Recover the amino acids of this structure.
């Protein structure tokens, strides 16, 4: 990750912000000491971020989930109707 001194960051802020928005974060340093990290801002409104596990504890999946309706589905595939 690039480290940019504060003077250079002020001079090239627009270009640096555009780079960060494109996924290239950077650190702004003052007298060689890292002060802040600039990264792209992500919102949940844009549909890009997925919140995995946000329903944990609210939904229960039965142990036989992968076998539910097995007999009915098999009957549909082996049906003699329509022949």
């Amino acid at each position: 990750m690039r480290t940019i001194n504060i003077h250079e960051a002020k001079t090239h802020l627009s270009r640096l912000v555009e780079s960060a928005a494109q996924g290239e974060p950077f650190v702004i340093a003052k007298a060689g000491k890292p002060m802040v990290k600039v990264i792209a801002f992500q919102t949940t409104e844009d549909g890009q971020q997925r919140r995995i596990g946000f329903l944990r504890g609210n939904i229960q999946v039965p142990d036989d989930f992968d076998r539910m309706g097995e007999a009915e589905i098999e009957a549909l595939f082996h049906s003699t109707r329509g022949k």
